[in-house]
From TrEMBL:
Organism the protein comes from: Adhaeribacter rhizoryzae
Name of the protein described by the UniProt record: LMBR1 domain-containing protein
Sections of the chain in a coiled coil: 3-58
Keywords per UniProt: Coiled coil
Amino acid sequence: MGAKEELEQLNRIEQKLSKLIARYNQTQEALEKAHQEIRQLELMVKQKEEEIKNFQNQENITKIVNTIAADAASATELKLKINEYIREIDKCIAYLRD
């Protein structure tokens, strides 16, 4: 094999290597975007779970209030009071976490 053929072969290898590096970089970028999307989706799931939990708590409060309260006015007052207690408890929990 002559020097010219070796040089041509080396150039082809260099071109292939450049293409591989470009593909690798594209793959890395796509992977990073996928990781970012996963983090965003995980955050959304966490928020939705919190919303569901709050909804379930409100539903449970309504059931408790309807069972305890004799009339609509006292039911509303009791519901507000329970919600206030829950907010205070949540504040205490948040304080203890810090």
